[in-house]
Amino acid sequence: MSKEEFCSMISVSEPGPGDGGNTGSWRVVRPVIDLEKCIPAKTGKPSCFNCWLYCPDAVVTKTLPPTIDYTYCKGCGICAEECPAGAITMVDEASFTKEEK
User: Domain coordinates of the chain in residue numbers?
Assistant: First the structure.
């Protein structure tokens, strides 16, 4: 392969949920969405979705209602900080039983 051919190649891969592996097992707090406060869930319209936009691990879905994939959620809390309606709270992981995980 010539230098020109090599230098013209670009990467076309895109990151996705779980690229770093199953990271939810070491989470200390988990985000919980209150659907009564969540703007898209409450209105039934695809609006807001700040939680989806700001999630660094792409584990929040852009669906009605939004859901969180706890298998890969690290519990960073960015979604809760960015939620304009205050619909996401960070809850201590120890308060959940094994069946809920």
Answer: 23-95
